[in-house]
Design goal:
5-stranded antiparallel β-sheet, about 450 residues, alpha+beta
Length: about 450
Protein backbone atom coordinates (compact mmCIF):
# COMPACT_ATOMS: atom_id res chain seq x y z
CA UNK A 1 0.00 0.00 0.00
CA UNK A 2 2.81 2.38 0.91
CA UNK A 3 4.61 1.50 -2.32
CA UNK A 4 1.47 2.33 -4.29
CA UNK A 5 1.20 5.66 -2.49
CA UNK A 6 4.84 6.42 -3.28
CA UNK A 7 4.25 5.89 -6.99
CA UNK A 8 1.07 7.96 -6.79
CA UNK A 9 2.97 10.96 -5.44
CA UNK A 10 5.72 10.69 -8.04
CA UNK A 11 3.65 12.95 -10.29
CA UNK A 12 3.91 15.71 -7.67
CA UNK A 13 7.63 16.07 -8.47
CA UNK A 14 8.96 14.47 -5.29
CA UNK A 15 11.11 11.92 -7.11
CA UNK A 16 11.62 13.71 -10.43
CA UNK A 17 15.19 14.76 -11.18
CA UNK A 18 16.14 18.25 -12.30
CA UNK A 19 16.21 18.62 -16.08
CA UNK A 20 19.42 20.48 -17.09
CA UNK A 21 19.28 23.40 -19.51
CA UNK A 22 20.23 22.36 -23.01
CA UNK A 23 19.46 25.43 -25.13
CA UNK A 24 20.71 29.00 -25.34
CA UNK A 25 19.25 31.89 -27.39
CA UNK A 26 21.05 32.02 -30.73
CA UNK A 27 21.31 35.82 -30.53
CA UNK A 28 22.94 35.85 -27.09
CA UNK A 29 26.16 37.24 -28.62
CA UNK A 30 24.23 40.10 -30.18
CA UNK A 31 25.42 41.10 -33.64
CA UNK A 32 28.52 38.92 -33.35
CA UNK A 33 28.54 36.10 -35.87
CA UNK A 34 29.24 32.66 -34.37
CA UNK A 35 29.31 30.15 -37.21
CA UNK A 36 32.74 28.76 -36.32
CA UNK A 37 33.19 25.52 -34.40
CA UNK A 38 36.48 26.39 -32.67
CA UNK A 39 36.39 28.01 -29.24
CA UNK A 40 39.13 30.08 -27.63
CA UNK A 41 37.76 29.15 -24.20
CA UNK A 42 38.81 25.53 -24.69
CA UNK A 43 42.47 26.51 -25.14
CA UNK A 44 44.79 25.66 -22.29
CA UNK A 45 46.06 28.85 -20.66
CA UNK A 46 49.68 27.71 -21.09
CA UNK A 47 49.14 27.49 -24.84
CA UNK A 48 47.53 30.94 -24.94
CA UNK A 49 49.99 32.79 -22.68
CA UNK A 50 53.42 31.74 -23.92
CA UNK A 51 55.40 34.35 -21.99
CA UNK A 52 57.43 32.30 -19.49
CA UNK A 53 57.37 35.11 -16.91
CA UNK A 54 53.59 35.28 -17.09
CA UNK A 55 53.25 31.51 -16.88
CA UNK A 56 55.35 31.52 -13.71
CA UNK A 57 53.16 34.24 -12.16
CA UNK A 58 49.94 32.38 -13.02
CA UNK A 59 51.31 29.19 -11.46
CA UNK A 60 52.20 31.12 -8.31
CA UNK A 61 48.73 32.64 -8.19
CA UNK A 62 47.05 29.25 -8.58
CA UNK A 63 49.07 27.98 -5.62
CA UNK A 64 48.73 30.92 -3.22
CA UNK A 65 45.78 33.16 -4.14
CA UNK A 66 43.57 33.62 -1.09
CA UNK A 67 40.27 33.69 -2.97
CA UNK A 68 41.08 30.45 -4.78
CA UNK A 69 42.08 28.71 -1.56
CA UNK A 70 38.88 29.92 0.10
CA UNK A 71 36.87 28.59 -2.84
CA UNK A 72 38.46 25.17 -2.35
CA UNK A 73 37.42 25.25 1.30
CA UNK A 74 33.85 25.87 0.16
CA UNK A 75 34.12 22.75 -1.98
CA UNK A 76 35.35 20.77 1.03
CA UNK A 77 32.42 22.00 3.13
CA UNK A 78 29.90 21.07 0.44
CA UNK A 79 31.42 17.60 0.05
CA UNK A 80 31.23 17.07 3.80
CA UNK A 81 27.54 18.04 3.71
CA UNK A 82 26.97 15.57 0.88
CA UNK A 83 28.61 12.81 2.92
CA UNK A 84 26.33 13.65 5.85
CA UNK A 85 23.23 13.48 3.61
CA UNK A 86 24.31 10.06 2.31
CA UNK A 87 24.82 8.76 5.85
CA UNK A 88 21.24 9.79 6.68
CA UNK A 89 20.10 6.70 4.73
CA UNK A 90 21.76 4.46 7.32
CA UNK A 91 20.33 3.63 10.74
CA UNK A 92 21.70 5.49 13.73
CA UNK A 93 22.96 3.70 16.83
CA UNK A 94 23.34 4.98 20.37
CA UNK A 95 24.62 3.40 23.56
CA UNK A 96 22.64 4.56 26.62
CA UNK A 97 23.88 2.76 29.77
CA UNK A 98 21.79 3.25 32.92
CA UNK A 99 22.32 2.32 36.57
CA UNK A 100 20.15 2.82 39.67
CA UNK A 101 20.42 2.18 43.40
CA UNK A 102 17.16 2.07 45.41
CA UNK A 103 16.09 1.26 48.97
CA UNK A 104 12.59 1.07 50.48
CA UNK A 105 11.92 1.91 54.15
CA UNK A 106 15.51 1.43 55.20
CA UNK A 107 15.76 -1.96 53.60
CA UNK A 108 18.65 -3.40 51.71
CA UNK A 109 19.75 -1.32 48.76
CA UNK A 110 18.95 -2.81 45.38
CA UNK A 111 21.19 -2.18 42.40
CA UNK A 112 20.08 -2.45 38.81
CA UNK A 113 21.62 -1.69 35.48
CA UNK A 114 20.83 -1.71 31.77
CA UNK A 115 23.19 -1.62 28.81
CA UNK A 116 20.94 -1.08 25.79
CA UNK A 117 22.02 -0.13 22.25
CA UNK A 118 19.19 1.76 20.56
CA UNK A 119 18.74 2.19 16.83
CA UNK A 120 16.58 4.41 14.61
CA UNK A 121 16.12 4.13 10.88
CA UNK A 122 13.96 6.43 8.80
CA UNK A 123 12.54 4.73 5.73
CA UNK A 124 12.60 7.25 2.87
CA UNK A 125 9.09 6.64 1.53
CA UNK A 126 8.42 10.06 0.06
CA UNK A 127 11.82 11.32 -1.03
CA UNK A 128 12.78 13.55 1.88
CA UNK A 129 16.23 12.02 2.27
CA UNK A 130 16.59 11.51 -1.48
CA UNK A 131 15.99 15.17 -2.28
CA UNK A 132 18.24 16.27 0.57
CA UNK A 133 21.04 14.17 -0.94
CA UNK A 134 20.34 15.50 -4.44
CA UNK A 135 20.35 19.05 -3.12
CA UNK A 136 23.66 18.47 -1.35
CA UNK A 137 25.06 16.96 -4.55
CA UNK A 138 23.96 20.06 -6.51
CA UNK A 139 25.60 22.26 -3.88
CA UNK A 140 28.86 20.35 -4.33
CA UNK A 141 28.70 20.90 -8.08
CA UNK A 142 27.90 24.59 -7.53
CA UNK A 143 30.87 25.04 -5.19
CA UNK A 144 33.17 23.27 -7.66
CA UNK A 145 31.91 25.55 -10.44
CA UNK A 146 32.49 28.57 -8.19
CA UNK A 147 36.06 27.45 -7.63
CA UNK A 148 36.59 27.16 -11.40
CA UNK A 149 35.06 30.62 -11.86
CA UNK A 150 37.51 32.05 -9.32
CA UNK A 151 40.35 30.29 -11.13
CA UNK A 152 39.26 31.72 -14.49
CA UNK A 153 39.02 35.20 -13.02
CA UNK A 154 42.41 34.82 -11.33
CA UNK A 155 44.20 33.77 -14.52
CA UNK A 156 42.63 36.68 -16.43
CA UNK A 157 43.47 39.14 -13.64
CA UNK A 158 47.11 38.04 -13.45
CA UNK A 159 47.43 38.28 -17.25
CA UNK A 160 45.77 41.71 -17.40
CA UNK A 161 47.95 43.00 -14.56
CA UNK A 162 51.08 41.60 -16.20
CA UNK A 163 50.38 43.25 -19.54
CA UNK A 164 49.48 46.48 -17.77
CA UNK A 165 53.01 46.47 -16.39
CA UNK A 166 54.39 45.85 -19.87
CA UNK A 167 52.35 48.76 -21.25
CA UNK A 168 53.56 51.11 -18.51
CA UNK A 169 57.15 49.96 -19.04
CA UNK A 170 56.88 50.79 -22.75
CA UNK A 171 55.33 54.17 -22.04
CA UNK A 172 58.04 54.90 -19.47
CA UNK A 173 60.75 54.04 -22.00
CA UNK A 174 59.17 56.28 -24.66
CA UNK A 175 58.77 59.14 -22.19
CA UNK A 176 62.37 58.73 -20.99
CA UNK A 177 63.62 58.90 -24.56
CA UNK A 178 61.54 62.01 -25.22
CA UNK A 179 62.76 63.57 -21.98
CA UNK A 180 66.36 63.24 -23.17
CA UNK A 181 65.48 64.89 -26.47
CA UNK A 182 63.70 67.77 -24.76
CA UNK A 183 66.56 68.21 -22.31
CA UNK A 184 68.91 68.55 -25.25
CA UNK A 185 66.41 70.88 -26.90
CA UNK A 186 66.32 73.17 -23.87
CA UNK A 187 70.11 73.44 -23.90
CA UNK A 188 70.04 74.21 -27.62
CA UNK A 189 67.33 76.84 -27.17
CA UNK A 190 69.32 78.56 -24.42
CA UNK A 191 72.37 78.63 -26.69
CA UNK A 192 70.28 80.09 -29.51
CA UNK A 193 68.91 82.71 -27.14
CA UNK A 194 72.43 83.80 -26.20
CA UNK A 195 73.19 84.13 -29.88
CA UNK A 196 70.10 86.29 -30.32
CA UNK A 197 68.35 83.70 -32.43
CA UNK A 198 65.65 82.69 -29.94
CA UNK A 199 63.35 84.40 -27.46
CA UNK A 200 62.99 84.08 -23.70
CA UNK A 201 59.32 83.11 -24.12
CA UNK A 202 60.28 80.23 -26.38
CA UNK A 203 62.88 78.97 -23.90
CA UNK A 204 60.38 79.19 -21.02
CA UNK A 205 57.76 77.29 -22.98
CA UNK A 206 60.26 74.56 -23.82
CA UNK A 207 61.33 74.28 -20.17
CA UNK A 208 57.70 74.00 -19.08
CA UNK A 209 57.12 71.14 -21.55
CA UNK A 210 60.30 69.45 -20.35
CA UNK A 211 59.15 69.58 -16.72
CA UNK A 212 55.75 68.25 -17.77
CA UNK A 213 57.45 65.20 -19.29
CA UNK A 214 59.49 64.76 -16.10
CA UNK A 215 56.25 64.86 -14.10
CA UNK A 216 54.64 62.25 -16.37
CA UNK A 217 57.64 59.99 -15.77
CA UNK A 218 57.12 60.26 -12.02
CA UNK A 219 53.44 59.44 -12.46
CA UNK A 220 54.28 56.42 -14.62
CA UNK A 221 56.76 55.25 -12.00
CA UNK A 222 54.06 55.50 -9.32
CA UNK A 223 51.58 53.61 -11.51
CA UNK A 224 54.11 50.84 -12.09
CA UNK A 225 54.58 50.52 -8.34
CA UNK A 226 50.82 50.38 -7.77
CA UNK A 227 50.31 47.73 -10.43
CA UNK A 228 53.12 45.63 -8.96
CA UNK A 229 51.42 45.87 -5.59
CA UNK A 230 48.18 44.72 -7.21
CA UNK A 231 50.03 41.75 -8.65
CA UNK A 232 51.43 40.97 -5.19
CA UNK A 233 47.92 40.91 -3.76
CA UNK A 234 46.79 38.50 -6.48
CA UNK A 235 49.72 36.23 -5.66
CA UNK A 236 49.24 36.65 -1.90
CA UNK A 237 52.83 37.79 -1.36
CA UNK A 238 54.63 40.86 -0.10
CA UNK A 239 55.25 43.72 -2.59
CA UNK A 240 58.19 43.03 -4.87
CA UNK A 241 59.60 43.59 -8.34
CA UNK A 242 58.45 41.17 -11.01
CA UNK A 243 60.51 39.91 -13.91
CA UNK A 244 58.76 40.57 -17.19
CA UNK A 245 59.20 40.85 -20.91
CA UNK A 246 58.26 43.62 -23.35
CA UNK A 247 54.89 44.36 -24.83
CA UNK A 248 56.38 44.62 -28.32
CA UNK A 249 57.45 40.98 -28.03
CA UNK A 250 54.06 39.72 -26.80
CA UNK A 251 52.52 36.93 -28.85
CA UNK A 252 48.80 36.29 -28.72
CA UNK A 253 46.53 34.88 -31.42
CA UNK A 254 45.03 37.43 -33.81
CA UNK A 255 42.45 34.93 -35.10
CA UNK A 256 40.28 32.65 -33.03
CA UNK A 257 36.75 31.32 -32.70
CA UNK A 258 34.13 31.93 -30.04
CA UNK A 259 32.17 28.72 -30.62
CA UNK A 260 28.41 28.32 -30.64
CA UNK A 261 26.35 29.94 -27.83
CA UNK A 262 25.27 26.63 -26.26
CA UNK A 263 28.91 25.99 -25.28
CA UNK A 264 28.52 28.68 -22.62
CA UNK A 265 26.57 26.09 -20.61
CA UNK A 266 29.53 23.74 -20.49
CA UNK A 267 32.43 26.23 -20.56
CA UNK A 268 31.41 29.15 -18.35
CA UNK A 269 31.86 28.09 -14.70
CA UNK A 270 29.69 30.93 -13.39
CA UNK A 271 26.85 29.80 -15.68
CA UNK A 272 27.34 26.24 -14.40
CA UNK A 273 27.32 27.51 -10.83
CA UNK A 274 24.05 29.36 -11.42
CA UNK A 275 22.46 26.27 -12.94
CA UNK A 276 23.60 24.05 -10.08
CA UNK A 277 22.11 26.59 -7.67
CA UNK A 278 18.87 26.34 -9.66
CA UNK A 279 18.99 22.55 -9.35
CA UNK A 280 19.57 22.88 -5.61
CA UNK A 281 16.53 25.12 -5.31
CA UNK A 282 14.50 22.64 -7.37
CA UNK A 283 15.32 19.83 -4.93
CA UNK A 284 14.58 22.19 -2.06
CA UNK A 285 11.01 22.51 -3.36
CA UNK A 286 10.71 18.72 -3.68
CA UNK A 287 12.01 18.30 -0.15
CA UNK A 288 9.48 20.84 1.15
CA UNK A 289 6.70 18.90 -0.60
CA UNK A 290 7.76 15.63 1.00
CA UNK A 291 7.18 17.15 4.45
CA UNK A 292 3.41 16.95 3.80
CA UNK A 293 3.48 13.14 3.73
CA UNK A 294 3.92 10.64 6.57
CA UNK A 295 7.32 9.38 7.70
CA UNK A 296 8.08 5.80 8.64
CA UNK A 297 10.66 5.24 11.39
CA UNK A 298 11.89 1.85 12.54
CA UNK A 299 13.44 1.81 16.00
CA UNK A 300 14.66 -0.85 18.35
CA UNK A 301 17.01 -1.60 21.18
CA UNK A 302 18.98 -4.58 22.46
CA UNK A 303 21.26 -5.09 25.41
CA UNK A 304 21.78 -6.54 28.85
CA UNK A 305 19.95 -5.83 32.08
CA UNK A 306 19.51 -7.34 35.58
CA UNK A 307 16.20 -5.59 36.07
CA UNK A 308 12.97 -6.75 34.43
CA UNK A 309 10.51 -6.66 37.27
CA UNK A 310 10.08 -10.02 38.96
CA UNK A 311 10.39 -11.99 35.73
CA UNK A 312 14.19 -12.06 35.85
CA UNK A 313 16.10 -13.00 38.97
CA UNK A 314 19.36 -13.88 37.33
CA UNK A 315 21.35 -10.75 36.41
CA UNK A 316 22.67 -9.92 32.95
CA UNK A 317 19.82 -11.17 30.81
CA UNK A 318 19.38 -10.16 27.18
CA UNK A 319 16.53 -7.77 26.44
CA UNK A 320 15.35 -6.55 23.04
CA UNK A 321 12.55 -4.48 21.56
CA UNK A 322 11.46 -3.26 18.12
CA UNK A 323 8.99 -0.54 17.17
CA UNK A 324 7.75 0.76 13.85
CA UNK A 325 5.99 4.13 13.77
CA UNK A 326 4.24 5.92 10.92
CA UNK A 327 3.88 9.64 11.61
CA UNK A 328 1.48 11.84 9.65
CA UNK A 329 1.87 15.60 10.20
CA UNK A 330 -1.48 17.06 11.31
CA UNK A 331 -0.80 20.35 13.04
CA UNK A 332 2.20 21.54 10.97
CA UNK A 333 0.34 22.18 7.74
CA UNK A 334 0.76 25.95 8.06
CA UNK A 335 4.52 25.66 8.67
CA UNK A 336 4.94 23.20 5.80
CA UNK A 337 2.99 25.45 3.44
CA UNK A 338 5.18 28.39 4.44
CA UNK A 339 8.35 26.36 3.83
CA UNK A 340 7.03 25.27 0.43
CA UNK A 341 6.21 28.86 -0.49
CA UNK A 342 9.70 29.97 0.52
CA UNK A 343 11.29 27.14 -1.48
CA UNK A 344 9.28 28.02 -4.58
CA UNK A 345 10.28 31.67 -4.29
CA UNK A 346 13.93 30.63 -3.94
CA UNK A 347 13.59 28.46 -7.05
CA UNK A 348 12.13 31.37 -9.05
CA UNK A 349 14.91 33.63 -7.80
CA UNK A 350 17.53 31.05 -8.82
CA UNK A 351 15.93 30.80 -12.29
CA UNK A 352 16.09 34.58 -12.72
CA UNK A 353 19.72 34.61 -11.57
CA UNK A 354 20.60 31.85 -14.03
CA UNK A 355 18.99 33.67 -16.95
CA UNK A 356 20.74 36.91 -16.00
CA UNK A 357 24.09 35.14 -15.65
CA UNK A 358 23.63 33.70 -19.14
CA UNK A 359 22.81 37.14 -20.55
CA UNK A 360 25.84 38.62 -18.78
CA UNK A 361 28.02 35.93 -20.36
CA UNK A 362 26.78 36.76 -23.85
CA UNK A 363 27.29 40.48 -23.25
CA UNK A 364 30.85 39.92 -21.99
CA UNK A 365 31.69 37.91 -25.10
CA UNK A 366 30.32 40.68 -27.31
CA UNK A 367 32.19 43.41 -25.40
CA UNK A 368 35.52 41.57 -25.40
CA UNK A 369 35.37 40.61 -29.06
CA UNK A 370 34.33 44.13 -30.10
CA UNK A 371 37.15 45.62 -28.02
CA UNK A 372 39.70 43.33 -29.65
CA UNK A 373 38.44 43.92 -33.18
CA UNK A 374 38.29 47.69 -32.68
CA UNK A 375 41.81 47.82 -31.25
CA UNK A 376 43.05 45.62 -34.09
CA UNK A 377 41.59 47.98 -36.71
CA UNK A 378 42.99 51.02 -34.88
CA UNK A 379 46.41 49.37 -34.68
CA UNK A 380 47.05 49.80 -38.40
CA UNK A 381 45.87 53.42 -38.24
CA UNK A 382 48.13 54.24 -35.28
CA UNK A 383 51.06 52.65 -37.11
CA UNK A 384 50.43 54.92 -40.08
CA UNK A 385 49.97 57.95 -37.81
CA UNK A 386 53.24 57.36 -35.98
CA UNK A 387 55.03 56.82 -39.28
CA UNK A 388 53.64 60.12 -40.61
CA UNK A 389 54.58 62.02 -37.44
CA UNK A 390 58.10 60.59 -37.54
CA UNK A 391 58.46 61.92 -41.08
CA UNK A 392 57.01 65.26 -39.97
CA UNK A 393 59.45 65.52 -37.07
CA UNK A 394 62.35 64.71 -39.37
CA UNK A 395 61.18 67.25 -41.96
CA UNK A 396 60.86 70.06 -39.41
CA UNK A 397 64.41 69.37 -38.28
CA UNK A 398 65.67 69.65 -41.86
CA UNK A 399 63.67 72.84 -42.39
CA UNK A 400 65.10 74.37 -39.23
CA UNK A 401 68.63 73.55 -40.37
CA UNK A 402 67.94 75.47 -43.57
CA UNK A 403 66.32 78.36 -41.70
CA UNK A 404 62.79 77.88 -42.98
CA UNK A 405 61.27 77.14 -39.55
CA UNK A 406 62.04 77.70 -35.87
CA UNK A 407 63.00 75.24 -33.16
CA UNK A 408 59.59 75.45 -31.47
CA UNK A 409 57.98 73.75 -34.46
CA UNK A 410 60.49 70.91 -34.13
CA UNK A 411 59.66 70.42 -30.47
CA UNK A 412 55.94 70.61 -31.20
CA UNK A 413 56.38 67.84 -33.74
CA UNK A 414 58.28 65.81 -31.12
CA UNK A 415 55.54 66.34 -28.55
CA UNK A 416 52.85 65.25 -31.00
CA UNK A 417 54.92 62.18 -31.87
CA UNK A 418 55.30 61.34 -28.17
CA UNK A 419 51.55 61.47 -27.63
CA UNK A 420 50.90 59.25 -30.65
CA UNK A 421 53.48 56.66 -29.57
CA UNK A 422 52.03 56.50 -26.06
CA UNK A 423 48.54 56.05 -27.50
CA UNK A 424 49.83 53.34 -29.84
CA UNK A 425 51.19 51.38 -26.86
CA UNK A 426 47.89 51.81 -24.99
CA UNK A 427 46.00 50.51 -28.01
CA UNK A 428 48.26 47.46 -28.19
CA UNK A 429 47.41 46.79 -24.55
CA UNK A 430 43.70 47.18 -25.36
CA UNK A 431 44.11 44.59 -28.12
CA UNK A 432 45.79 42.15 -25.72
CA UNK A 433 43.23 42.86 -23.03
CA UNK A 434 40.46 42.11 -25.51
CA UNK A 435 41.93 38.63 -26.06
CA UNK A 436 42.28 38.03 -22.31
CA UNK A 437 38.74 39.22 -21.56
CA UNK A 438 37.33 37.12 -24.40
CA UNK A 439 39.22 34.10 -23.07
CA UNK A 440 37.65 34.65 -19.66
CA UNK A 441 34.20 35.35 -21.13
CA UNK A 442 34.28 32.01 -22.95
CA UNK A 443 35.20 30.16 -19.75
CA UNK A 444 38.89 29.72 -20.51
CA UNK A 445 41.28 28.65 -17.77
CA UNK A 446 38.66 26.81 -15.72
CA UNK A 447 40.13 23.35 -16.38
Amino acid sequence: MLTLAAFTFTGCGIYKKYDPKRSVPTDIYGSVQCTDTTNLGMTDWRALFRDTHLQSLIEEGLSHNTDLLSAQLRVDQAEASLTASKLAYLPSFALAPQGTVSSFDGGKAMQSYALPVSSNWQVDLFGGLLNAKRQADANVSASQAYRRAVQTRLIASVANTYYTLLMLDAQYAISSETKSKWEEGVRTAKALKKAGMYTEAGVAQMEATYYMICTSLEELSEQINQVQNSMSLLLACAPREFERGKIAESELPDRFGIGVPVELLSNRPDVQQAEHALASAYYGVAQARSAFYPSLVLSGSAGWSNSAGQLIANPAKLIASAVASLTQPLFMKGQNQARLKISKAQQEEAALFFNQTLLNAGSEVNNALTKFQTAQRKSALYEQQVSSLERAEKSTRLLMQHGNTNYLEVLTAQQTLLSARLTQVANRFAEIQGVINLYQALGGGSR
